[in-house]
């Protein structure tokens, strides 16, 4: 059987056509599900296209330079080489996704429908959240969920303390997904909840891989510019953080649980030590990874990480979370950078397209409420930073409007600080060459086994407290 | 429609009642010769003579006498100058007026009206600025109304005088000089019916007396943020128009209850419990309560302002509900 | 200055006296039967018996017409019977029966009958005073020929509303009679420990109204004094204060364990029992046979009243819509959900 490679929804509702700018595989190449096989441009913002399944690359239907409608087939993948070859003359229809049936939470509701008992529209009992914590939802949200048969466990709460409100259930319904299919399975044992975090691999097969962890409200595509260069020399792994990109949406009670999912994922790999690069929220996760599994981290690069101070621009976080249209997203994106041209209309459209799923936005809203309540960083990884032993670089834009660059001063003495002038919260986008150079330097010297710090120098490790 | 002051609207109701029904009489401290300290009874003595009486400062006895006078064929309207003095009247209300309708049933009627005014805002201090709404609204067998517009002041006072049961009319010292259209004709306003002062879809601001004006101001500010607040003027505190409340909460799913009585065990607490009883499944957030801080009312302006509820506190409560 | 109540009104007629005697005997019979039923555990709550005080309530109300008003205390059985209420319906109310004057809702302390102008028993000490003054105000405003009598005790005489009421009634010349039934005890405390003056009637001077002290165990004396005060009130001359001296023979209530009243006092007052005093006067006038016949009649009335009331059904509870806190029915929690969703 043959499966089509399509652009999916990259263009979102704002794009008609995309331009194919790169093919990374050719006919006959073996591909694995999730591999980046092509890059398309949506109004000048590059978007990667992944293989939808394992198999062998068949014909390329849209060569580099062609403009194709959103959703069009770019190429075909066969189950094996013969299949792929046959596919040249075949035009198979992709199989429609099989909907997951709605969970029957009221399976026994009608057991005792006596004359005086009001059968009601649906059972009102609400299951507990999968992790044993009580599921907090407003009465109106519970009633609406019961009546529309939405499983509240898959709804991300955006109310205070993560309470599920009516609007959250409505968002799920507006997304049009049948109950149980959309949203956030938080339950262990559900197919969605158990799905592993999404990771994209590129670059050569050998070498110490570079793991890239994106920031809050982003996904692994934000590394596009950097990844292209790094992948020339190093294996590159780009992880979608939980509740981001293609990773499952789960409910977390604290940062520790959130980072724990990433750490567990990395622990399951057989890649050996990694050069870990984390941006913003991904930076805090990277630090947690280095703290808990030091043997898995050869070097650590933190780009404007969160968790090193209390200040954060809550308005930007909230604005990013809440934006449901390009028009409302774009102003917030501009806050992230110094030069607004970096996040022009096209970038905003692409970013919005990646955030088109309301369930994803809801999940991130809940995450933001947990991580950054009331415009304050509830995450504190400063103690981890003080005891980190691995080679460490910190990169920060001095014009960062989201997380103040002075948080970098919490770094221990052995760390290298790179404070970039006229750069905002996205150094890897605003100054990719500089960031690349810092990363390559670190990789080079740590791969030589030179620079792994074994003990912190007493005099240099207390800069943060002096500064405070 | 003529635009008149709240105090004039009350005066018009009293004048009309005294004119139409010889059983009606009006008594209270400083109300006859002087016309009342808030001038609500101005001119009535001249028009109706002995049926408008100045009294000694004897709130306990006057209230008790008004109750039995009502029971024996008259329709007394007693003015208690400040709501803060209502504790003096409470035996007559809670042990006398409220019980006979039940104990003695159809044998007696108690068409008795107690008018008083409460509330802060004029620097009258801890013994002259309270709103003790819950003291009276608590009592089975009493009716309690709290008009905020001049039209309702006239219509509800008239309805109270015509009602066969004891009715407490809660006025507010800051309302007497407010103006509003009052329809001609002198029709009573039905007791037990709330009023939608301003329609909205996002959050219900359920308020009483002058707090309705603060809720309307809060609604204006919320509108600047795109939030459409519905303001419900309860008008009657007891019997409560629970259907109006549930209808609004069913629409907005968010409720802020506002009352100038103290919060703890106060009237706002009753509203909150009522919503829980009758509209729990409509709630998308906990009911927010805005009430006077649980402490004596201070004298100096910044202190009093900090204690009495206002539009800003209502806005904050609405935003908390909508968070 | 203060007028007085002399010359006293005419003595009651013999027929009136016989009627009063019968009503006192009925009241006494009721009290004694209630005491027996209480001991048998067949009554509910405390009952405040007026044994030995019957002459006050009966003598005062005998003066009044059906249109006149009277208010009384938690110890008001003599007033109930004196004002002409049906003993059977009074007993039924005391026993909490459906056939009582108030269907068992009021009980023995708060019984009321508008048709008799008996409005009514009042168990807040002092509250019967402004209650009667308010009725008198109503009478004055409606220019009626009625009077109101407030029966209250020596304990009530110490309340603030007693002062307020007397001042107001005198100020406005209300047609009210303040009948102070001084039985010497406010619960367990003698009135001498509660009042700065021994003779409570002297307070009338402070309100510019007549005040007299009379023998409250002599029903004729009570009748005469109240009649004079009522006539004064009807003439529009305002209120009067009558202090009727009597004594509480059976404790504060059926719950009272006693021990604070001296045997000497009890014996002295027992010798002056109002029925004894009345009987002696009547025997002199109409002979013992006639008096015994009246007393036998009273005993039959009491026996019939209790027999009937005890056989009467207990009341059935019904809610009281006029007390309901809600003007409009709200949806019951959890019901009517489908419609609400449609609206959303």
TrEMBL record, chain A:
Region Disordered, residue ranges: 84-140, 183-202
Low complexity bias: start-end ranges: 103-120
Q: Which domain of life is it from?
A: Bacteria
The record, for SUPFAM superfamilies, names:
alpha/beta-Hydrolases (SSF53474), Peripheral subunit-binding domain of 2-oxo acid dehydrogenase complex (SSF47005), Single hybrid motif (SSF51230)
A Pfam family the protein falls into? Abhydrolase_6
Q: Which NCBIfam families match?
A: PRK14875.1 (NF011457)
Per the record, the similarity remark reads:
Belongs to the 2-oxoacid dehydrogenase family.
Q: What is this protein called?
A: Pyruvate dehydrogenase E2 component (Dihydrolipoamide acetyltransferase)
UniProtKB/TrEMBL annotation, chain C:
Cofactors named for this entry: thiamine diphosphate
**Which reaction is catalysed here?**
N(6)-[(R)-lipoyl]-L-lysyl-[protein] + pyruvate + H(+) = N(6)-[(R)-S(8)-acetyldihydrolipoyl]-L-lysyl-[protein] + CO2
Q: Which UniProt keywords apply?
A: Oxidoreductase, Pyruvate, Thiamine pyrophosphate
EC top class, as a word: oxidoreductase
What's the short name of a Pfam family annotated to this entry? E1_dh
Q: Which residues form the Dehydrogenase E1 component domain?
A: 22-315
Give the UniProt record's GO annotations in the biological process aspect: pyruvate decarboxylation to acetyl-CoA
Q: What EC identifiers does the entry list?
A: 1.2.4.1
- Family annotation (SUPFAM superfamilies): Thiamin diphosphate-binding fold (THDP-binding)
Report a single Gene Ontology molecular function. Answer: pyruvate dehydrogenase (acetyl-transferring) activity
Q: Which Gene3D superfamilies match?
A: 3.40.50.970
| Function, as annotated | The pyruvate dehydrogenase complex catalyzes the overall conversion of pyruvate to acetyl-CoA and CO(2). It contains multiple copies of three enzymatic components: pyruvate dehydrogenase (E1), dihydrolipoamide acetyltransferase (E2) and lipoamide dehydrogenase (E3).
Q: Can you name this protein?
A: Pyruvate dehydrogenase E1 component alpha subunit
């Amino acid at each position: 059987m043959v499966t089509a490679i399509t652009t999916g929804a990259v263009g979102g509702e704002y794009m008609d056509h995309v331009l194919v700018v790169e093919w990374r595989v050719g006919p006959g190449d073996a591909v694995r599900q999730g591999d980046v096989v092509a890059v398309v441009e949506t109004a000048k913002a590059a978007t990667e296209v992944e293989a939808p399944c394992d198999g062998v690359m068949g014909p390329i239907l849209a060569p580099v330079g062609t403009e194709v409608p959103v959703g069009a087939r770019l190429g075909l993948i066969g189950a094996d080489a013969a299949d792929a070859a046959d596919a040249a003359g075949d035009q198979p229809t992709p199989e429609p996704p099989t909907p997951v049936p709605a969970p029957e939470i009221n399976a026994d509701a009608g057991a005792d429908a006596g004359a005086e008992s009001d059968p009601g529209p649906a059972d009102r009992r609400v299951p507990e959240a999968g992790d044993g914590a009580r599921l907090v939802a407003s009465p109106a949200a519970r009633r609406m969920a019961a009546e529309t048969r939405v499983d509240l466990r898959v709804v991300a709460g955006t109310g205070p303390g993560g309470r599920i409100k009516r609007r959250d259930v409505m968002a799920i319904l507006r997304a049009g997904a049948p109950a149980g299919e959309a949203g956030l399975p938080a339950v262990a044992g559900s197919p969605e909840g158990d799905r592993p975090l999404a990771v994209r691999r590129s670059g050569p097969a050998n070498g110490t891989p570079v793991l890239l962890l994106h920031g809050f409200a982003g996904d692994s595509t934000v590394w596009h510019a950097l990844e292209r260069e790094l992948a020339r020399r190093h294996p590159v792994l780009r992880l979608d953080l939980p509740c981001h990109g293609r990773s499952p949406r789960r409910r977390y009670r604290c940062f520790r649980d959130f980072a724990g999912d990433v750490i567990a994922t990395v622990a399951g790999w057989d890649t050996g030590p990694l050069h870990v690069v984390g941006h913003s929220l991904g930076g805090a996760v990277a630090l947690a990874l280095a703290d808990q599994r030091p043997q898995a981290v050869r070097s650590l690069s933190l780009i404007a990480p969160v968790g090193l101070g209390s200040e954060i621009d809550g308005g930007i976080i909230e604005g990013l979370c809440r934006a449901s249209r390009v028009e409302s997203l774009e102003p917030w994106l501009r806050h992230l950078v110094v030069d607004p041209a970096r996040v022009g209309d096209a970038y905003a459209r692409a970013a919005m397209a990646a955030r088109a799923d309301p369930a994803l936005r809801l999940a991130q809203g809940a995450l933001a409420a947990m991580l950054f309540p009331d415009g304050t960083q509830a995450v504190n990884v400063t103690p981890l930073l003080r005891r980190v032993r691995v080679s460490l670089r910190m990169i920060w834009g001095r014009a960062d409007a989201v997380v103040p660059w002075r948080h970098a001063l919490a770094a221990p003495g052995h760390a290298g600080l790179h404070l970039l002038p006229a750069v905002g919260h996205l150094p890897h986008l605003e100054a990719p060459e500089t960031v690349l150079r810092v990363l390559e330097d670190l990789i080079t010297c740590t791969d030589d086994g030179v620079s792994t710090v074994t003990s912190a120098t007493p005099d240099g490790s207390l800069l943060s407290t002096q500064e405070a | 429609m003529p635009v008149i002051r709240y105090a004039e609207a009350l005066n018009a109701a009293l004048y009309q009642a005294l004119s139409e029904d010889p059983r009606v009489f009006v008594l209270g401290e400083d109300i006859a010769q002087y016309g009342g300290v808030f001038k609500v009874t101005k001119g009535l003595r001249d028009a109706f003579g002995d049926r408008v009486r100045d009294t000694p400062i004897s709130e306990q006895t006057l209230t008790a006498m008004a109750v039995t006078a009502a029971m024996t064929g008259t329709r007394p309207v007693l003015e208690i100058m400040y709501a803060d003095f209502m504790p003096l009247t409470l035996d007559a209300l809670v042990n006398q007026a409220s019980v006979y309708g039940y104990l003695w049933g159809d044998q007696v009627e108690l068409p008795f009206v107690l008018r008083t005014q409460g509330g802060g805002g004029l620097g009258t201090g801890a013994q002259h600025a309270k709103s003790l709404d819950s003291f009276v609204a608590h009592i089975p067998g009493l009716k309690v109304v709290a008009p905020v517009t001049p039209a309702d002041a006239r219509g509800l006072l008239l309805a109270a005088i015509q009602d066969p049961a004891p009715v407490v009319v809660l006025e507010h010292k800051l309302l007497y000089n407010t103006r509003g259209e009052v329809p001609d004709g002198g029709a009573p306003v039905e007791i037990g019916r709330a009023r939608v002062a301003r329609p909205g879809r996002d959050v219900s601001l359920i308020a009483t007396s002058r707090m309705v004006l603060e809720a309307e101001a809060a609604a204006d500010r919320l509108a600047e943020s795109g939030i459409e607040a519905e303001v419900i003027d309860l008008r009657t505190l007891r019997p409560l128009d629970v259907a109006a409340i549930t209808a609004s909460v069913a629409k907005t799913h968010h409720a802020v209850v506002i009352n100038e009585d103290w919060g703890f065990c106060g009237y706002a607490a009753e509203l909150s419990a009522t919503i829980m009883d009758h509209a729990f499944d409509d709630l998308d957030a906990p009911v927010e309560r805005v009430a006077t801080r649980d402490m004596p009312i201070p004298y100096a302006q910044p202190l009093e302002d900090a204690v009495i509820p206002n539009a800003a506190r209502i806005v904050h409560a609405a935003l908390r509900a909508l968070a | 200055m203060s007028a007085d109540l002399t010359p006293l009104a005419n003595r009651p007629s013999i027929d009136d006296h016989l009627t009063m005697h019968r009503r006192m005997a009925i009241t006494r019979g009721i009290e004694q039967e209630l005491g027996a039923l209480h001991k048998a555990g067949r009554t509910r709550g405390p009952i405040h018996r007026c044994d030995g005080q019957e002459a006050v309530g009966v003598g005062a109300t005998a003066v009044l017409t059906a249109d006149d008003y009277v208010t009384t205390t938690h110890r008001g059985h003599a007033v109930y019977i004196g004002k002409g209420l049906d003993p059977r319906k009074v007993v039924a109310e005391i026993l909490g029966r459906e056939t009582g004057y108030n269907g068992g809702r009021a009980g023995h302390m708060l019984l009321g009958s508008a048709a008799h102008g008996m409005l009514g028993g009042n168990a807040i000490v002092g509250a019967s005073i402004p209650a009667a003054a308010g009725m008198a105000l109503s009478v004055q405003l409606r220019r009626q020929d009625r009077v109101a009598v407030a029966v209250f005790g020596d304990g009530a005489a110490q309340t603030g509303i007693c002062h307020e009421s007397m001042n107001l009634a005198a100020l406005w010349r209300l047609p009210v009679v303040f009948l102070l039934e001084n039985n010497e005890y406010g619960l367990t405390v003698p009135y001498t420990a509660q009042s700065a003056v021994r003779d409570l009637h002297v307070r009338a001077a402070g309100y510019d109204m007549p005040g007299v002290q009379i023998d409250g165990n002599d029903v004729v004396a009570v009748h005469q004094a109240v009649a004079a005060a009522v006539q004064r009130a009807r003439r529009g001359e305002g209120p009067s204060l009558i202090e009727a001296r009597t004594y509480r023979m059976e404790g504060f209530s059926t719950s009272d364990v006693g021990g604070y009243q001296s045997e000497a006092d009890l014996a002295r007052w027992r010798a002056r029992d109002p029925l004894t005093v009345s009987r002696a006067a009547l025997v002199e006038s109409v002979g013992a046979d006639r008096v015994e016949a009246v007393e036998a009649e009273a005993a039959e009335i009491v026996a019939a009243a209790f027999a009937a009331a005890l056989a009467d059904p207990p009341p059935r509870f019904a809610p009281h819509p006029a007390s309901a806190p809600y003007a409009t029915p709200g949806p019951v929690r959890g019901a009517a959900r489908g419609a609400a969703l449609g609206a959303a």
